[in-house]
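Minutes, project check-in
Item: structure for the 189-residue chain
Input as provided by the requester:
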Amino acid sequence: MEIKQAEAIIEAILFTMGESVDLDKIAEAIEYDEKTTKTIIRNMMMHYEEEDRGIRIIELENAYQLCTKQEMYEYLIRIVKQPKHHTLTDVLLETLSIIAYKQPITRLEIEKIRGVKSDHAVSKLVEYNLVKELGRMDAPGKPLLFGTTEEFLRRFNVKSIDELPVFDAEKMEDFKLEAENEVHLKMDI
């Protein structure tokens, strides 16, 4: 194996792992002895420091890690400070509505109402900090209970879940009949 190829492999390993990797593991991966591997990494370290690069390799107790140069932190902070805009798809809105109105609720209960698996939707809502785990239900299997967060209240401009719109029972019956009629029409076709 050529040195350039070994460098590329080391770079890929350090980038992918995201944490320090022991010298012996790197040497084993590139099939060189530890002394030669250390020399290759040291040359890479000098290369990263000499050039105007945004990354560098650091040594930590006979292990190596790929890191951002300190001079670049200011630019990273600019990116981190930019607000993230999460798009709520129809599926996410439907799942969020069920959780908001039925909380605390288990994933299985959500799936019964929606009629489809909801793992991805619930995970996304947790990631967006609109839904959180409230604990576990005292039932076989101890399923997780989900509910809305303070971020949910902020985003939807309500002080508490008690302020969520209440549906008129008469309208709900109309919706139910309309849905049942649609199902019957589809079955007749």
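Outcome recorded: The chain has nine helices and six strands.
No further action items on this chain.
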